[in-house]
Amino acid sequence: xxxxVTLNQSIYDIYPKGFDLTSVGKRLNFTEHHxxxxxxxxxxxxxxxxxxxxxxxxxxTSEQIADIVQQLESGTLVVVQPNSSNDESxxxxx
Length: 94
Fold this sequence. Notes:
This protein is an alpha+beta fold and 94 residues long. The chain is 37% helix and 22% strand. A 4-stranded antiparallel β-sheet has the order 1-2-4-3. A hairpin with a 2-residue loop joins strand 1 and strand 2 (10-16).
């Protein structure tokens, strides 16, 4: 399931591994920038805590954040800035 979030007036879609992402938008690469990855997940928590619950089944917030960071680092989750044609999608984390 895709999770759509809006952070700082930008839309991001977070997909689990296995989706065909060839035409959905620009994939964000966090593999070389651990600090920006941690900042992204922290901002995600601040602006959309429900997305954290949708992306991690752990109970405590600090564990959920660490879990999501690990999933993004390993490629289990992928963050995409959607193309403008994909902005109309209503599929979300709710």
